[in-house]
Design brief:
The protein has 3 helices and no strands. The protein is mainly α and about 45 residues long. The protein has one domain. It is elongated and about 40 Å long.
Length: about 45
């Protein structure tokens, strides 16, 4: 989903429609994905 947003530049509603899932699920999943990416980047900086 993060790739659809970042690379394909789709809007949240477009992602929801393409995947046939609720908009709220897209928002939650993208929030979790961004949190994981930030944590991984921070972990890499700590090394």
């Amino acid at each position: 989903m993060l790739m659809l947003y970042a690379v394909a530049e789709l809007e949240y509603a477009e992602i929801a429609a393409a995947l046939q899932i609720p908009l709220g699920s897209v928002q939650s999943a993208l929030h979790r994905a961004r949190t994981k990416v930030r944590a991984a980047l921070a972990e890499g900086d700590a090394r």
